[in-house]
Design brief:
This protein is an alpha/beta fold and 393 residues long. The protein contains 16 helices and eight strands. Helix 6 links the parallel strand 3 and strand 4. It is globular. The model has no long low-confidence stretch (mean pLDDT 89).
Length: 393
């Protein structure tokens, strides 16, 4: 009979599968020296008893924003000065209250309880920073997920006006390039004191990343060079996303292992591709802000019942105009018991969904009255419907 001991010891071609995880931070992050140096220079004043500028990092998913921030944070905190960097995942801590509550409990160590008024948490945080002359850099990953983000930025950046010693600075991270335009002008000017843009990786850069990780993740000579080149090329062609490339190689390795093969080849990468594409789409939809999920849901409902707009000519099946999509979004909000947002906000949701590759968004050409846009889903409508209904159930 098979035992757990046998399963644990049976790694096959893998040496350390964790090295292919997007959460694994290697000692060296290939092709991000410039960004890391800029980050280090940005937070260094805190180590010299001065307030760093607020910073904002943006770029597409899988371009190294979080990894670089965590790498810098580890080095920063190892200095053991009156300064600390704290990473906060805003998918979990998605409100001003939750962020300040976490700072109180994990940095100030004040043992705050859920239900304490925000004013008490704020005063405790300010008093602790001043008494300890502490400089805190708060890393807000996916800051765009914070529901009351303007209130959070306003509160956190005004703390320093009340402090004679110590400081609090923000390092915001977002995948959404349109996030800046949604901020209140005061928030924008406060947060964007220093910006760093993370460009998508090229195929050659992704190959270097895969080669570095493969040396740790697999036993010697277990991955064909051609397999890494293919995974890098596929990821570069899509979005330049290192997470996608790593997931392809990881899945290809699992397939090879299950087949009893001793090397990962191009064939395994090709076999992994469809599964990885689907996994990433499901992950992307599951982690969207609520109203973007509903917008996508509304488009899926339209596609399943068909468009009422029949004047676009030939070969326009499953293409919708922005007006009918907004109507479908409004109906979906009612169906799910959520208050709808304005058409202006809805337009921004469409931009984000387009950027993530979940829809294609094109402006109307000649022959169509007024200004409108054509919208098309890039993923199966029924799968979106089922997934979003499960999320809201």
């Amino acid at each position: 009979m098979l035992t757990f001991e046998e399963l644990i010891e049976k790694n096959g071609i893998f040496a350390d599968l964790n090295a292919l995880s997007p959460h694994y931070i290697p000692d060296v992050l290939p092709h991000r020296d410039g960004e890391i140096e800029t980050l280090m220079k940005g937070v260094a004043p805190a180590l010299k008893d001065a307030r760093p500028k607020n910073m904002f990092l943006y770029g597409k998913t899988g371009t190294g924003k979080s990894s670089c921030s965590k790498s810098v944070m580890e080095r920063f905190n190892a200095m053991n000065r009156n300064a600390i960097m704290k990473y906060i995942n805003c998918r979990i801590y998605d409100s001003r209250y939750k962020v300040i509550f976490k700072i109180n409990n994990e940095i100030c160590k004040c043992d705050a309880k859920i239900g304490y008024p925000l004013s008490k948490l704020y005063e405790t945080m300010v008093e602790w920073v001043e008494e300890n002359n502490m400089h805190i850099v708060v890393v807000l990953d996916e800051i765009d997920m914070v529901k009351d983000v303007d209130d959070l930025i306003y509160t956190m950046t005004r703390v320093n006006d009340e402090l004679e010693r110590g400081s609090i600075s923000l390092l915001g991270i977002s995948n959404r390039l349109y996030f800046k335009e949604r901020l209140d002008p005061r928030s924008k000017s406060s947060l964007y004191e220093k910006e760093i843009v993370f460009r998508p990786y090229t195929a050659n850069q992704l190959y270097d990343i895969l080669k570095q990780r493969a040396k740790i993740a697999f036993v010697e000579d277990a991955v064909d060079d051609a397999a890494m080149n293919l995974a890098a090329a596929l990821a570069a062609r899509e979005t330049g996303d290192a997470r996608y490339a790593l997931k392809l190689l990881q899945k290809a390795g699992v397939i090879a292992n299950e087949n009893g093969d001793t090397r990962v080849s191009e064939k395994h990468v090709e076999m992994a591709r469809k599964s990885v594409d689907e996994d990433l789409v499901i992950e992307a939809i599951s982690t969207l802000p609520q109203h973007e999920q509903i917008a996508l849901y509304g488009i899926s409902l339209l596609q399943l019942k068909g468009s009422a707009y029949g004047k676009l000519g030939e070969n326009v099946e499953d293409v919708f105009i922005s007006g009918e999509v907004y109507d479908s979004y409004m109906n979906a909000c009612k169906r799910l018991g959520v208050s709808p947002r304005s058409a202006r906000w809805f337009s921004e949701y469409l931009h984000d969904l387009d950027m993530l590759g979940l829809i294609t968004l094109t402006a109307s050409g000649k022959g169509v009255r007024g200004q409108t846009r054509f919208i098309k889903l890039t993923y199966d409508a029924m799968k979106i419907k089922v997934l979003v209904e499960k999320i809201f159930s």
